[in-house]
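Example record

One chain of 251 residues, shown exactly as stored in the release files.
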Amino acid sequence: MPEIAPALPAALAPCRAALEADPARYLDLTEPVRRGEGKVLSASPEGALVSIDNYDRDGTPRGFSLWCAREDAGEALLDLISGPVDLLFYHDDFCTPLIARRFGLTAMGPCRQAGYFRREPPPLPQTPWEVRALGREYLDVLTANYGYGDGEYLSWLIGRGELFGAFDGGELLGFMGRHAEGSLGLLEVLPGHRRKGVAFLLQRWMLRRELGLGHIPFGQVFADNAPSLALQERLGMTFAQGPVYFALGEM
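Predicted structure tokens for this chain:
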């Protein structure tokens, strides 16, 4: 199946050689800019820093994506961040101590980042289940079953219409959504409904939704999560050659 060649935003043209060498690896940096949900704070052949609009607080950016060719280039780009940070994506392990020292964030990863670059959306599996947007009446269930975010964050995503559930009639089987920085994730299948194809349905449904919005769907999987990696391959996702990491503040 033919693949889409993702267009690099013009503001990131100075680092074209690096970013286009492994497009899936840098979707956390390029896709927010392409969607109009991120701003390029700096871009050169040595590195780039993007602020993510949805992590602004009172007009101050608190979410970022960083690429740098060397440690000193990373130091210079991090100097551009003046306040606290809630989330920071980066692509090389030498940045981990720099970020921890400056911002006190908890590093996560390495992850494999994957993007859906195919032209045609994946077909939905034949199933009696339906996928629909979740309301705040499901917040307690979401909070109890998702381990990487608090109720405030999940409630914010619900308010934006970014969390969806798979239902068998009125019974919630599992859920998935789109994170504030634009990546797909938050995937959880509730106990008693696993290994039935719920995750496969949710992933395909979300891919179709993102493509319908004109987005290049992307997400991260921890490098040691073999079942999730296999699922992404079945879905037709293209994996990055190199790793991606992210660092979080307290949740």
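Notes: The chain has a mean pLDDT of 93.
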